[in-house]
Design goal:
Two copies of one chain form a homodimer. Chain A has 243 residues and is an alpha/beta fold. In chain A, 41% of the residues lie in helices and 24% in strands.
Chain lengths: 243, 243
């Protein structure tokens, strides 16, 4: 794990790093010492580790909860090289949709393919970050919606260190089988008028989670329009289960 | 409006009253003076104005938010006389269910009948309570699930003083038309394994609400098993919209 730079602002220390070929960023409270809960964040499709939605949430997890937060670029995103196989599949899928195929199953197949790389990557990032003195082996939470849900469900299912997860904007096609292996508390976000994930698919993924404590929050609006008050709820959810 | 008795405990003043034939109870902060937000609460079927679920929530609205809270007995419930018409319908409905009819439409029809009495009753209670110096004409919220939702939806639709409502455990059969006239913010509770309200019916009632801000909270468990953390959310919801 190589740290390439670090900056601080408004009480948050931000450190870019790379682990093998994976570019990442770690946020911790300024002057943090000793173990603390850690949130792993998964970004959305076409986004990256420092996308505005990731950054805004990460800052609040750090400043209001004292947590550490880590996010890495998904293959083919952010500071990672273009991935020829993924690009080829994306191009093929576009053609198949234009030829009349349904988008949902194609996205699901693609996310399952990417998850086979990201699950081991994220687990090795977790190993490395928990070695740091200012993070340590505290409880771990996961936050990810959209692509971050499609990749997050298999990650949370595979990783026993994750004790609570906020997921959503994803459908059962992609990950119902993995969801059935998740038993930790989950807060699950559905956008009632989601133009990308059919409502039934989102509800079916929530239904598939094996967690005894799971709570569905559905709000009007399109895929990208999660209301601001849900972040307040996310903070309380993680505080309740990790702090 | 005649007040028959008053007691205080742990910072909450409780006053029983009757208005015409309606027995009710008002809770306010001890020593309250001047206007404040008021929550109208509707109890569940077979329950009454001081049922444990009403009482526990009312106390927290008073002590944590400084609100006033009012609840009255629904006709045929609590301190009200038996209602021969309702009893006859209930007996008939039991027979019809045993003869193979679906329960849902029968409950819906019954709740619509009761609502024709409770909506004007609750509005006159609101008039009277807002005349009191320690309540005044502040913003009004409504809380009611199950029967309290079936009766609450037409009440909230009819009463412009209500600015925010927590509803749930109710289905679209009973009140979708009234729901389509509700435009205030709503927090709507669904129990994912509700044995009395089919899941689709609950989701359809949420869907029918015309509110631009509405949020669905669904949790695993049966009709009576709303998790405790939802009350924390209810308090924040009312604080956000009424305080």
């Amino acid at each position: 794990m190589r740290f390439s730079s670090g900056t601080s602002s408004d009480g948050v220390r931000e450190q870019l790093f790379s682990l093998d070929e994976i570019p990442g960023v770690l946020w911790t409270p300024d002057g943090a010492a000793g173990p603390r809960p850690l949130i792993v964040m998964g970004h959305g499709g076409g986004q990256h580790k420092k996308a505005p939605g990731i950054l805004a949430r990460a800052r609040r997890f750090v400043t209001e909860c004292g947590f550490a937060v880590v996010a890495v670029d998904v293959p083919g995103h952010g500071d990672r090289p273009k991935d020829e196989e993924y690009d080829r599949i994306a191009t093929e899928n576009q053609a198949r949709v234009q030829a009349g195929e349904e988008l949902g199953p194609l996205i699901a197949g693609f996310q399952a393919l990417v998850a086979r790389r990201t699950v081991p990557e994220w687990r090795s990032v977790l190993d490395a970050v928990q070695e740091l003195e200012q993070v340590g082996a505290g409880p771990v939470g996961y936050w990810g919606v959209s692509l971050g849900c499609g990749l997050g469900v298999p990650f949370v299912a595979a990783e026993p260190r994750v004790r609570a997860a906020v997921l959503g904007l994803g459908g059962a096609l992609a990950s119902a089988e993995d969801a059935a292996r998740i038993t930790v508390p989950v807060e699950f976000l559905v956008q009632w008028d989601d133009e990308r994930v059919p409502r039934d698919q989102g509800l079916a993924l929530f239904d598939a989670l094996a967690s005894a404590e799971k709570t569905l929050h559905a709000n009007p609006g399109k895929h990208g329009e999660i209301p601001a008050f849900e972040l307040d709820s996310t903070l309380r959810f993680f505080s309740r289960h990790l702090a």
